[in-house]
Design brief:
GO terms for molecular function: cysteine-S-conjugate beta-lyase activity. Its EC number is 4.4.1.13. Belongs to the class-II pyridoxal-phosphate-dependent aminotransferase family. MalY/PatB cystathionine beta-lyase subfamily. By secondary structure, this protein is of the alpha/beta class. It contains 14 helices and 15 strands. Helices cover 42% and strands 15% of the residues. It has a 7-stranded mixed beta sheet, with helices on both faces. α2 packs antiparallel against α11. It starts with 16 loop residues before the first helix and ends in an 8-residue tail after the last helix.
């Protein structure tokens, strides 16, 4: 492999939320969704050159930025963007809040497919809207959309928006074209606008492909908004840059206005530089990273099958976030995470962070060097093996 993903880089003491949020110096954080790998060499080199310039004033986003984004989507996803469709902003979460401001009024309903990314809930709450849960169905350990329930939720007179997580965090689904078409048809039927968060779309496992929602039909393109950023795939979340893709002129004007009202319409020079480098010279690195992440996922599957068979690993099609069913242990998600933190100094995300449908699950970030992953799995085993020994075995992925 041309790129080194095995070297452990010291992050503690660098101001990293993932590593410095805990006061426990023995802790191993495997929770928040950033990676423990340096970003692509091409990005590091481009940023170093930008730093050497020495002046970091207000940023004009150049043609090269738009060209890089447009070519990336065309090349990897057959999504033929137009420059005027793109609105840059500081992040996907600020974008979602601004979009909800543009599309809803207090008291309106926003559909969520739970368990789902926790910031969806806070965005809805902050805009004084109501969350309409459309819980995913678990079928033989794999999560699917409950379309009958979605029809009911979309028919709610208050429903205005569906927040789609595509690919899905935390369950790791890479939604198929057929699933997305059915979802889109329901939303069109009930005049519900789809806001598709596709921030994890560059992190697809072998055998699967990302399907942008907006490319499936002209009417989907016209009645949807796509949010995307290079932050997850290239580990540059701290550079705070993202794009909102809006085809409809009137809808785009409303969202542009909301981005300005929320004061998230400006970006920093490093985010611009990093995005251009990522999309013009980082593709080879990303493809190597994806293979390494898939190998880590398989290592987790083997470890649970051999040593913790009571735990069930959800089949993962995308992302670097393992969604693990621990319900056989008889503990709540809060009890599980507390036990892991206290007994093994292992920090993971409780499933209930993603809604009540996540009860009994934990989310484990596996985007780390193999040695770190091995350490984390050893800690997981030491803390949970006594409980797992008394629990019934289940088939793991």
């Amino acid at each position: 492999m041309r790129y080194d993903f095995d070297t452990v880089v010291q992050r503690r003491g660098t101001g990293a939320t993932k590593w410095d949020a805990s006061a426990d110096p023995a802790s191993l954080p495997m929770w928040v969704a950033d990676m423990d790998f340096p970003t692509a060499p091409a990005i590091i080199e481009a940023l170093a050159e930008r730093v050497r310039h020495g002046i970091f004033g207000y940023t004009h986003v150049p043609d090269a930025y738009y060209d890089a984004v447009i070519h990336w989507f065309a090349r990897r996803y057959a999504f033929p963007l137009q420059r005027e469709w793109l609105l840059y902003t500081s992040g996907v979460v600020p974008a979602i809040s601004a979009i909800l401001r543009a599309l809803t009024q207090p008291g309106d309903g926003v559909i969520l497919q739970t368990p789902v990314y926790n910031c969806f809930f806070s965005s809805i709450r902050n805009l004084q809207c109501r969350a309409l849960a459309n819980p995913l169905r678990e079928v033989d350990g794999r999560f699917e959309i409950d379309f009958e329930d979605l029809e009911r939720q979309a028919a709610d007179p208050s429903a205005r928006v569906l927040l789609l997580c595509n690919p899905h965090n935390p369950v790791g689904r890479c939604w198929t074209a057929a699933e997305l078409r059915r979802l889109g048809e329901i939303c069109l039927r009930h005049d519900v606008t789809v806001v598709s968060d596709e921030i994890h779309c560059d992190l697809i496992h072998p055998g699967f492909r990302h399907q942008p929602f907006a490319t499936l039909a002209p009417e989907f393109l016209a009645r949807s908004i796509t949010c995307h950023a290079p932050s997850k795939a290239f580990n540059i979340a701290g550079l705070q840059i993202a794009n909102v893709i809006v085809h409809d002129v009137d809808l785009r004007a409303r969202i542009d206005r909301a981005l300005n009202i929320h004061e998230v319409c400006d970006v920093n020079p490093f985010g611009v530089t990093a995005t251009i480098a990522a999309y013009t010279a980082g593709e080879d690195w990303l493809d190597a990273l994806r293979l390494y992440l898939f190998s880590n996922y398989k290592a987790v599957a083997r470890e649970l099958a051999r040593h913790l068979p009571a735990l069930k690993l959800t089949p993962q099609e995308a992302t670097y976030l393992a969604w693990i069913d621990c319900r056989a242990l008889g503990l709540s998600s809060a009890e599980l995470t507390a036990r892991l933190a206290e007994d093994a100094h292992l920090l993971v995300s409780p499933g209930t962070l993603y809604g009540e449908d996540g009860e009994g699950f934990i989310r484990l970030n596996l985007a780390c060097p193999r040695a770190t992953l091995k350490d984390g799995l050893s800690r997981l085993r030491s803390a949970l093996a006594p409980l797992a020994a008394a629990a019934p075995s289940v088939t793991t992925a």
